[in-house]
Prior knowledge:
It is a single chain. By secondary structure, the chain is mainly α. 76% of the residues lie in helices and 0% in strands. The protein contains six helices and no strands. It has helices at 2-17, 27-51, 55-81, 89-97, 109-134, 138-164. α1 (2-17) crosses α4, α2 (27-51) packs antiparallel against α3 (55-81) and α5 (109-134) packs antiparallel against α6 (138-164). The termini are far apart.
Amino acid sequence: MAHLIKTSTFALLVALASQGAFAAQDNDDFVEDASAKGVAEVEAGKLAQEKGSASDVKSFADMMVKDHTAANSKLKMIADKKNLEVSDSAELVDKAKAMILELRSSKSFDQAYANNQVKAHEATIALFEEEASNGKDADLKAFAAETLPKLKEHLVHAQALAKAHGGDAAK
């Protein structure tokens, strides 16, 4: 039963992180979407550190926790200066409860995590590219532009991970 709960929690967190990226209509939208995706990455990474079986998955998860925690902190500092709210763990859990992700086709947690990391990073990159190109706030545009190279690096690693673990999200 604990396995089912952990897998379901992971699925819901990843589903939130991989939601389609929409054009950031205003600063609030970008901060909310980017911070929710960041929190989801950290939480999914923590779960993968615990549940993953392959060393490359655990190593990637460590990188996700470290890098996304740092990006989340930087975004929070910018948001605080502008009186914008960031998503927090409680918001993420509330949103995640409403979402369902089918993982039955995956052979393992490692494969599911790798596949979903590809999808999540593709969506996050689209969100950040939109903000970097068309954002209305100079600080948020700069944050998005500064963060994009790291997100793209994560995507390359996620694609390699998916390929290594038989995932269908590898390109």
